[in-house]
C-alpha cells in the first residue's frame, strides 16, 4: 500500500507538494472516484489512478535529473500559454528522445523570477524535489547579486538578523548570509565628482519566499540589477553556458540526497 501523493510523486506526475494540490483540487481519481485526501492509501498493483482523466502508469519511470542554466526571460514553470518560453521547453524534447517508450514529465525544483538567471534543477523525482524545497530541510541556495551600490556594514548585519518584507510585518525572513565578492569601482561623473558603481554580492538563503532577494534589498533602499543562482546545496552551476543543460552525474545526485538526509538527522537530534 502507498499513499496517493507519494504514488504520484514517485511516478513523475508532480512534486509531492504539487501532487497534494492536484488531489485537493479534485483532479485525481482512484478507480473512477475523486479522492481529495493526500494520504489516501492505494494498492499500486490493482488500483487505477487518473490525473485529469489520464491514467497514471504503474511502472516506475527512470529517475531523471537535469541541471539548466536558465536565461532571463524564461519562465520557471512546466506550462504557461502566455509565456514565450519555459524551462521545460528548453530541455523536454531532447530528454524525451533519450528515453523512448517512457512517459517523462519533468518539473522544476523551486523557481527563479522571470528576469533572474542561473541554476535550475529539473527532475521527476518527487521525493528529492520535496526534500530540497521543504522549509524544514534547510537546504541553502546561493546567488550572485549585482546591486546599484555597495551595501553598508550595518545593512549586512540586518540581513543576518532577518528583515520584514511583507506588508503586515508579522514574520521576518530567516537569517541570510550576504558578503561582497567584488570591490566597487568609482565612476567619474564630471566636474570632479564621483559615483559609486554597481557591486556584486554573494547571498545564501535557507528559505524561498516569492522574489525574496529583490524584496530584501528593496526594503533597505538598494536596487537589484542582476540575480544569478549558482548553487543548490552541494550542487554547483560551474561553467555551464547560459541556456544550456546537462544531466547530473550519479555523484551529484547522491550528494544532493545526502545533504537532505544529514539535515533531517540534525533536526531529529535537536541540532
List keywords for this structure.
271 residues, alpha+beta, Structural Genomics Hypothetical 15.5 Kd Protein In mrcA-pckA Intergenic Region, Chain A, Alpha-Beta Plaits, 3 domains, 9-stranded mixed β-sheet, 4-stranded antiparallel β-sheet, 7 helices
Fold blueprint:
Blueprint: E1 2-3, H1 4-10, H2 16-24, E2 28-30, E3 33-34, E4 41-42, E5 49-51, E6 54-55, E7 65-70, H3 87-97, E8 107-109, E9 117-123, H4 126-133, E10 141-147, H5 153-161, E11 177-180, E12 186-190, E13 193-196, E14 199-205, H6 212-219, E15 224-232, E16 235-236, E17 245-247, H7 250-268
Parallel strand pairs: 9-15
Antiparallel strand pairs: 1-4, 2-3, 2-5, 5-6, 7-9, 7-17, 8-9, 10-14, 10-15, 11-14, 12-13, 15-16
Helix pairs in contact: 1-2
pLDDT < 50 stretches: 264-271
Number of strands: 17
CATH architecture of the largest domain: 2-Layer Sandwich
- SSE ordering: EHHEEEEEEHEEHEHEEEEHEEEH
Helix content: 25-40%
Largest sheet: 9 strands, mixed
Spatial separation of the terminal alpha carbons:
33 Å
Average pLDDT confidence is 86
Structural class: alpha+beta
Radius of gyration: 21 Å
Q: What is the C-level CATH assignment of the largest domain?
A: Alpha Beta
**How many H/I helical runs?**
7
Amino acid at each position: 500500500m502507498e499513499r496517493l501523493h507519494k504514488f504520484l510523486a514517485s511516478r513523475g506526475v508532480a512534486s509531492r507538494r504539487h501532487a497534494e494540490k492536484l488531489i485537493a483540487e479534485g483532479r485525481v481519481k482512484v478507480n473512477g472516484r475523486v479522492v481529495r485526501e493526500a494520504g489516501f492509501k492505494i494498492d499500486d498493483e490493482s488500483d487505477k489512478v487518473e490525473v485529469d482523466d489520464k491514467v497514471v502508469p504503474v511502472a516506475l519511470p527512470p529517475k531523471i535529473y537535469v541541471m539548466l542554466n536558465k536565461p532571463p526571460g524564461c519562465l520557471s514553470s512546466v506550462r504557461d500559454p502566455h509565456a514565450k518560453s519555459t524551462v521545460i521547453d528548453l530541455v523536454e524534447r531532447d530528454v524525451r528522445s533519450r528515453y523512448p517508450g517512457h512517459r517523462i514529465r519533468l518539473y522544476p525544483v523551486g523557481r527563479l523570477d522571470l528576469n533572474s538567471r542561473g541554476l535550475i534543477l529539473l527532475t521527476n523525482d518527487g521525493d528529492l524535489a520535496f526534500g530540497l524545497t521543504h522549509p524544514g530541510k534547510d537546504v541553502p541556495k546561493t546567488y550572485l547579486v549585482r546591486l546599484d551600490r555597495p551595501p553598508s556594514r550595518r545593512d549586512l548585519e540586518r540581513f543576518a538578523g532577518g528583515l520584514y518584507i511583507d506588508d503586515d510585518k508579522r514574520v521576518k525572513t530567516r537569517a541570510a548570509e550576504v558578503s561582497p565578492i567584488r570591490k566597487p569601482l568609482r565612476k567619474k561623473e564630471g566636474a570632479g565628482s564621483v559615483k559609486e558603481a554597481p557591486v556584486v554580492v554573494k547571498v545564501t538563503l535557507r528559505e524561498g519566499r516569492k522574489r525574496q532577494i529583490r524584496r530584501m534589498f528593496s526594503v533597505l533602499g538598494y536596487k537589484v540589477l542582476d540575480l544569478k543562482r549558482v548553487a543548490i546545496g552541494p550542487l554547483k552551476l560551474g561553467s555551464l553556458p547560459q541556456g544550456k543543460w546537462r544531466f547530473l552525474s550519479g555523484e551529484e545526485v547522491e550528494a544532493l540526497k545526502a545533504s537532505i538526509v544529514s539535515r533531517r538527522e540534525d533536526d531529529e537530534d535537536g541540532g
